[in-house]
Design goal:
WH-like_DNA-bd_sf; globular; carbohydrate derivative binding; Rossmann fold; 5-stranded parallel beta sheet; 13 helices; 10% strand; DNA-binding; alpha/beta; Arc Repressor Mutant, subunit A; DNA binding; Putative DNA-binding transcriptional regulator
Length: 284
């Protein structure tokens, strides 16, 4: 059963060897896909041998991965494991559970709406701007500063000349006084809107900077400065509005940017990966 397997893996993580722990971690993150995996695909994704995967299956009490897959396929037919039913179970937790259920429904609808943006003329225009501009600057203030920094960090894996603007210099000189002839600005914004965001958007519009605003659906001033406005639904029953749609939209943009850049993105990722190895950026 999915639930039983998950509990067993989590309970025994600290007892596993390093290789076993890496396999278990992969399995926990991909439980729904395991019925379609093989020892070879798991081994390739985790970076271990097929023999190691097979031995781990026996450690878990299975004769092989085939037995595990059969068990998972049978359990997936159980209606209690359907997403809709699992969501309905939240309501049984009382008032707090009902709020969680309502918030989950809002978030699901918001994510579906994000996916529906993909391939639209607006979407294609934004992807082209992010690929073809001489430089791309990203800004987000207050609670969106982290989202903006993450967007810039991941975009620079795909293309050069990407920077974060925080306004600390008081002039945004990197954008308005830099060397790029045709820069672009990506501005993240959601309620409560900052004065700095609006001033930056106004100045970018006047300076002829290609402006992309990624914002919530209440951002009434964005369209006054650009036609490239990607608006997402951030409504939530939680204390804070949801930022999940911003992250999902970013992921989808990066996918299309990578596809459009093709070998340029692949080559750049390869060079940066080699640098990471040289500087020991990650644990093996």
């Amino acid at each position: 059963m999915n639930g039983d397997l998950e509990r067993r893996l989590r309970a025994d993580l600290h007892r596993f060897t390093r290789s076993e722990r890496e396999i278990a971690t992969y399995m926990l993150a991909n439980l729904q896909d395991l019925p379609f995996e093989t020892a070879a695909t798991i081994a390739a994704r985790v970076g271990v041998s097929q023999m190691t995967v097979s031995r781990f299956m026996r450690t878990l009490g299975y004769s092989g991965i085939g037995e595990l897959k059969e068990e998972l396929r049978e359990s997936s037919l159980n209606p209690s494991l359907l997403l809709t039913d699992r969501a309905e179970h939240l309501k049984k937790r009382g008032p707090a559970g009902r709020d969680l259920h309502a918030s989950l429904q809002l978030e699901i609808r918001a994510l579906v709406a994000v996916y529906e943006l993909v391939g639209t003329p607006l979407w294609q225009r934004v992807v082209e701007t992010l690929c073809d501009s001489d430089a791309v600057f990203v800004a987000g203030f207050q609670t969106l500063g982290g989202i903006a920094a993450d967007f810039a960090a991941r975009l620079q894996y795909l293309r050069p000349e990407v920077g974060v603007l925080d306004g600390a210099d008081g002039t945004f000189a990197a954008l308005f006084g830099g060397k790029a002839d045709a820069p672009a600005l990506v501005l993240f914004e959601m309620r409560r809107y900052t004065r700095l965001s609006q001033l930056l958007a106004e100045q970018a519009s006047r300076a002829g900077v290609r402006l992309i605003v990624i914002c919530d659906r209440h951002c009434h001033w964005a369209h006054a400065h650009t036609e490239d406005v990607l608006a997402v639904n951030t409504e939530s029953r939680l204390f804070w509005d949801s930022q999940s749609p911003f992250v999902s939209l970013s992921n989808l943009l990066f996918e299309d940017i990578a596809q459009r850049l093709g070998e340029r993105a692949t080559d750049r990722i390869g060079r940066l990966t080699a640098l990471q190895q040289n500087f020991g950026a990650f644990l093996d």
